[in-house]
Amino acid sequence: MNSLFSFLITMNKERKLQYHKRIATGLFLLMFLIYIATVIVQNKAPELAFVGYIKAFAEAAMVGALADWFAVTALFHKPMGLNIPHTNLIEAHKNDIGENLGTFVVENFLKPKQIRPYITNIRVSTFIIEWLSRENTTAKINGLVKDTPLRSKATELLTAFLEANKHQPFVAQAFEKVAAYLNANKELIEQEIDSQFPPLIPSFIKDSITRKVSNGIYELVLKTSADETHPIRAEITGQLYRLAEKISSPQWESVIAQLLQTSIAKLTAELKQNTLLQQQIDIWVQKMAYQFVLRNKEEVGKLISSTVAQWEGRELSQKLELEVGKDLQFIRINGTLVGGLVGLLIYWFTHLLAN
Fold first, then answer.
1. Predicted confidence (pLDDT) per residue in 82-94, tens digit
2. Which residues fall within 8 angstroms of residue 305, CB to CB, at 6 or more apart?
3. CB 194 within 8 A of CB 206
4. Does residue 60 contact residue 348 with C-beta atoms inside 8 Å?
5. pTM for the full model?
6. Contacts 24+ apart (CB under 8 A), 162-168
7. Which of 63, 88, 234, 322 has the fewest CB atoms in 10 Å of its CB?
8. How far is the first Cα of the chain from the last one, in angstroms, to the nearest whole number?
């Protein structure tokens, strides 16, 4: 579809170019016919002085038309196929054009003062809110979950994670935090254990049992955090393996989709209400974009130069002629008319001096 669309655009540009070429050429031919007619009339009726003015206009107009035809044609072709110096300029100087174009873009479009106004207008948070708020977002999420092998990928990643024992540091850290919490709240825990005993049990017995239970739990957690082969750690690992198997089952598809929908709904609500968060997101994106452009602006120039260098000279010439050739035909038209007016002025001035 894109190639067909590009082809139609190219054909439309080609049609416009040929149309304006015919206008410019037709104007030249009109001047030629007028010139021939005035020569004939002058020979048969030399007393008609005004014919000389028309002839001078047509004569100079032809000169202007031919001169500008040569100038415009020499940019893209060899006029009449003749190997005249300094013609077919685009094709002959393709690499120079690419380098100059790359440098021009970098120096005139990628300077800080040029890009800053555009960067500061970036509002990514607004786009995110609008996209997340669309009615079809939920359907897209469901389609993503359905079409993307998220479950199998999640199972593969979790299984590989477990087989490499990469989960062990996290488990150990979790038990260390539990141990630290038990130690920091030892008195509160002992009070809670003590309150579970019947009132008839003597205090010294309750205190002894309470301390032993509290210390025992603390020591168990410390041993579990320090020993990867501890039965509790082994049980946690087994549970994680079973979770990896469950994730690959079909019923988890709806769970994942629901989890994503809930998370997106919360994120959307938070973004809508939290203008400070919106500003932080926009500022962060603007900063990243600004730094990226400035850091890679020279690469943009190299990309333009290398892209142009890879084109065939004939291809570049044709591309540029399609883009600007239509407007350049007005140079031919203006050259015809201005040349005619200058010729008319010279003819009038010559007669004025003669008389």
1. 777 777 777 777 7
2. 98, 99, 101, 102
3. yes
4. no
5. 0.48
6. 162/237, 162/240, 162/241, 162/244, 165/228, 167/237, 167/240, 168/228, 168/233
7. 234
8. 71
